[in-house]
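Predict structure. Chain length: 95.
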Amino acid sequence: MDADPYLRKLHYRAHHRGTREADAMVGGFFDRYSADWAQTEFEWFERLIEEQDVDIMAWALGTAEPDPAFAGPMMEQLKRLDFISLPEGLETRRS
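Prediction complete.
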């Protein structure tokens, strides 16, 4: 884990949302992409994690339009959901 207290704080908040689904989505997004973020992306993410989990998940899943303040490349990256790993065996049940 990074020694930077700011990154540790964001990592913790991303992975301790309140539900396993939100932890996987928000925490997985942070883990996958944060190494490439500049200050603007970190600021966007800090605002995002202040939102309700149900809203974040609905935006990412495409069941609700994101708040205009979150629209853009970062939201499109979140919507890809290419950072979530499903538990073993679940992939075959979804087919």
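Summary: The CA atoms of residues 21 and 81 lie 12 Å apart.
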